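Objective 1b: paired records.
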Amino acid sequence: MMRNSFGLPQNLGDSLVLRWATPADTEALASFNVHIHSDDLDDPEIWLARWTEDLMRGDHPTTRASDFTVVVDENAGGKIVSSLNLISQSWAYDGIPFGVGRPELVGTDPDYRRRGLVRAQMTAVHAKSAARGELVQAITGIPWYYRLFGYGMALDLGGGRDFLWDRPGNDSKVEEELYQIRPATEADWSILQTLYEAHNRGALISRQRDEETWRYELTIPNPISVYARHFYLVELIDSPHQPVAYVEYKQFGNSYFVRELGVRPDHSWRTVGLYLTRYFKKLADVLYEKEEKRLRGVTFGLGIGHPIYEALGRQLEEQRRPYAWYLRVPDLPAFLRHIAPILEKRLAESVLTGYSGTCRVNLYQQQFTLVFAQGKLQEVGSYEPKSVDDGDLQFPDTTFLSMLFGRNSWEELNAVHADCFPRTAEAAVLCSILFPKKPSWVVGLG
């Protein structure tokens, strides 16, 4: 029994009870998630069942059966009619770790919708996430819906560029390959960690991995799950056992889809990248011979700013626009205090080095101050606005999150939100320094 059950079990009326799941619910929840989340029930997405089982089995680094909520109908034999879960993880903001709670597998039986069942469950998992000290909640999901629970689309999700084999100039044959590739093993986790840092080079937000997480991702998830990772190490043929790069990929549709890629600092991203395009072409040729399934190329699904794009340049197709993570930051002042070292570093390296002053940020329904003295953030306080638009920076709804997490500059936000702007020239300069646009390609823990 958990010491704090966060108000559960809870009677929701009409014979519906909200409670935390137990391992005994695994089979029913796996079946429920396949039924609710499959796009076509004539072709059910069985991986959803395997993912549910992975999360509930007890060997996941952060998630157990008790991190799922279920709403059951006691007048229907206790059947599950709604559910979601919480996957805790650690991300970093320009290197500063912060806790994230990720609600996922949010679904309700169509016959039970529009009764507030998801809202009741969100309240419970938000409370659990807060109790774990997680400053942010993040979710991937359908358009608009999660705005109802305080989330805003504030961080790039997906996006990428394609390398097509039949494009002129993309037939990069070589007389002799420098590299070979092999599956990574559990023993390789520390090497992968170093190469993963190269994958995240230039990203504002990234997920942190520790030894337990690496060992889990390398060995345990069901291989058919979308959240199973498939890691490979690239080595010099003349120097085996000295990996120079890693790649994580999966075949999706008519291409090989690269989800992670990192190259050692003393090796060429371009040389490794072109080797991988040839490696995938050989795999595709074998697949075509066996299954008569022709693949067209490699998708580097690495957001909008990954180093491989610069390395392969115009050999890649145009950027595929990303979707977005929904983010929720229930206590913005606390989060800003947490990342104060980054804000101070940005000031120190800017035209406002040594800045002293108070910036009043008005989110219309919430206000706070950023108080600086000699370039140091002394306080994130509050103020009482004298009018609805009283402040140095104005950000409606959740637009501030898009700037805070680097997805948009204030100029971009102002272009589509006329009530989003800095009121003074100094505030505009300060805003651009503290919250620059910077890409991210987060690999979420599932």
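Objective 1b, second protein:
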Amino acid sequence: MQQWFELKQGKRLFLGGSSNLQAAREVAGQCACFAEDDEDEQIDDVTRSCYNCQYRRWLSEGFQCLGPISE
């Protein structure tokens, strides 16, 4: 899962950008910290996706994960 994130200026950035649905679903499927966001904030049709997580914060180049780091 870590291969999809980069720590940059103290932010854990998702390297799949804002449109890699497959990667976002894969990562969320392995993440013990996933928490479903409000339905009106979700953008992926598959619920368990980083794009639908309440710990996701959108940035111009994708999103930052604010969830606790799971090992």
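The chain has one helix and four strands. Residues 21-30 form the longest helix (10 residues).
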